[in-house]
UniProtKB/TrEMBL annotation:
It is a multi-pass membrane protein. One of its GO terms (cellular component) is plasma membrane. It is found in: Cell membrane. This is Sugar ABC transporter permease. Residues 38-252 form the ABC transmembrane type-1 domain. GO terms for biological process: transmembrane transport. The chain crosses the membrane at residues 42-63, 75-95, 125-151, 172-193, 231-251. Keywords: Cell membrane, Membrane, Transmembrane, Transmembrane helix, Transport. Belongs to the binding-protein-dependent transport system permease family. Pfam families: BPD_transp_1. Its main location: membrane.
Length: 263
């Protein structure tokens, strides 16, 4: 409640807060700068959730067929998540560097120089570049949860499908995915909550640039507090972020749970 009341004021952190009512909220929805922040946040969240869980599901399906190396490879996938977010951000900032960066140098080595880019300096791809780092860091978590889901699938069902001549792809599509519904629900919910409030990678790698292309709600709140000293506006954006996370998570969870019941 303190945050909600603060969001209805104009307060710089010192002195008396001035009551402004809903002006902060009106500014957020009327100012293109803030609507871009909201748009960036949802695009960032969508990209991370889709690719983190999609890649994690593919890794889990692959590792489930290789019990001999499953534990080793699963541990390897979790290594990125053990790094500090700050260290990971700076490492990838170097890899994305337009001159001498690892990615552009690798593309040149394999004859794909035409694909080289200013990954963090091009407003059309910067947000996706930062999202890619988020996916890289946490895809191991999604894989581990999917593997736990695979452990709960009866081996008799999979063996029966093999005996009936069901192809691996059809077995994955019509047997594995329906039975992995609880793991899918958990992964999507956790990834959604984590990404909608994320600010670390955009802050470390781009500081929201170029031209606010990577500015997310979490990062904007941080900058409003500690650089612009607009506590009331930061509180208003925080309230909206909490509401967005709660609403999206509840709608997702409700749909995914109902899907589990139908399956």
């Amino acid at each position: 409640m303190k945050g909600v009341s603060l969001s209805l004021t104009d307060f710089s952190g010192v002195g008396e807060a001035t009551w402004v009512g809903l002006e902060n909220y009106k500014t957020i929805f009327a100012d293109a700068k803030y609507t871009k922040v909201l748009t960036n946040t949802f695009i960032y969240g969508f990209v991370v959730v889709v690719f983190q869980n999609g890649i994690g599901l593919m890794f889990a399906a692959f590792l489930n067929e290789l019990p001999g190396v499953r534990n080793f490879l699963r541990t390897a996938l979790l290594v990125p998540s053990m790094l500090s977010l700050v260290i990971a951000g700076y490492i990838w900032q170097y890899l994305y560097a337009p001159m001498g960066g690892g990615i552009n140098e690798l593309l040149a080595m394999i004859g794909l120089s035409n694909l080289q880019s200013v990954w963090l300096g091009d407003s059309s791809i910067a947000l996706f570049s930062v999202a890619g780092v988020h996916v890289w860091m946490f895809v191991g978590y999604s894989t581990a949860i999917f593997l736990a889901g695979y452990a709960g699938i009866s081996t008799e069902l999979r063996d029966a499908a093999r005996i009936d001549g069901v192809s691996p792809f059809k077995r994955f599509l019509h047997l594995d995915i329906p039975l992995l519904a609880p793991a899918i629900t958990v992964n999507i919910t956790l990834a959604t909550i984590g990404t909608l409030k994320s600010f670390e990678f955009p802050y470390i790698m781009t500081l929201g640039g170029p031209d606010n292309a990577t500015m997310t709600m979490g990062l904007k709140i941080f900058l409003l507090l500690f650089q612009e000293f607009k506590f009331g506006m930061a509180a208003a954006l925080s309230v909206l972020m909490i509401l967005a996370v709660a609403i999206v998570a509840m709608v997702q969870n409700s749909y995914l749970r109902s899907r589990e019941d139908r399956l």
